[in-house]
């Protein structure tokens, strides 16, 4: 394990051996020297300390760190590769490279030695973040987990402890005393520039990461199988297919709505390396879902119904699922009833479907919103028998095609309102206007947590309390760090 740190102030290269080393402790002298220099980076603590790990591709965490430091926090950032460093500040930045075991030891030392009060991360299923969450649980350090919004557009997900199937709300319904209605909730604001900004940031991030990262940095990559050459090829193919299939997608959707309204089942496929297709999916992946659903559909679905597979827009260039779907459909004599699209409105298709089948995509929440029967195969935040047809074994899917069970409108409205209230914040991770909104929401949640004194740990510093009052009143512009 190798670790090193970067700070805006040059630090002396102390080569003295570490004193007070625990006898029998197996750690290299180099590691101890690095930890000694790391201690020199930190002044005495006078404000709540926040440690930001990996964020969304782009400048979101850089801007968040700048605003937190202006708002009375002492915010630091850990970078794991050159892609992270591209979008990081020069000051208050730490670097780590090495194994998961080394990361666990390094982070535990960092949190314990320097009194960090919060950790903030994006994507709780990334390997570095799974290790970090487990480490923070041992040390009692709260973790704010960010993710794409459960309900889009115009929302981000912000929860303490985890997201999706790791969310504190996973598999639960609101308490009986809860009376909120989803219709009364603020509607998210769409940010048209979000996708193009995300694509640009992702290209820069993954290009630099794959070209210039060291061997030790590569050990903790997320999306490890994506190489620069292959990604360039797949994204060219994505845009080619998008425009080539535009009219075909339109004709297919028009045909379904005109001739098979409420008589087709929709299966929105997920990105092949979606973090939710890991532990949360169990043994399910897109290929197994395609195979099992077509076989079950051919065996048990009404003869008048159709089956529609929607390839994810981000998977359009990578996917070979179209050929697989066609082959399995022919083998099961339902080729004339199975359709494949890679575009179109998910909301429109869901609203007019007879049912939706998913592993654990957030498209399940769209089905709940529209009152469309839903089958869920994996672990998901909404996996509850009152909300969905929960499949444990593939054969159980046979019972879904003729099942029209939908939770009452009041139950669905209360659930979505509760989820919105507890998990979502306005904003966006990629469009600049949305980033400003989301970063202020993150800052405010941290201020609320500090204001509560983190349970029984005492009154927060006056510096942060005064910053809290000032920032809530003024709502200053997020700095372009």
How does this structure look, described?
- The chain has 481 residues and is an alpha/beta fold.
- The protein folds into two domains: 45-154 and 197-225 and 427-453, Rossmann fold, CATH 3.40.50.2000; 248-422, 3-Layer(aba) Sandwich (Rossmann fold), CATH 3.40.50.
- Helices cover 41% and strands 14% of the residues.
- It is built from 16 helices and 14 strands.
- The chain has an eight-stranded mixed β-sheet, sandwiched between helices. It has a six-stranded parallel β-sheet with strand order 10-9-8-11-12-13, with helices on both faces.
- β6 and β7 (155-160) form a beta hairpin.
- The two termini are 31 Å apart.
- The relative contact order is 0.14.
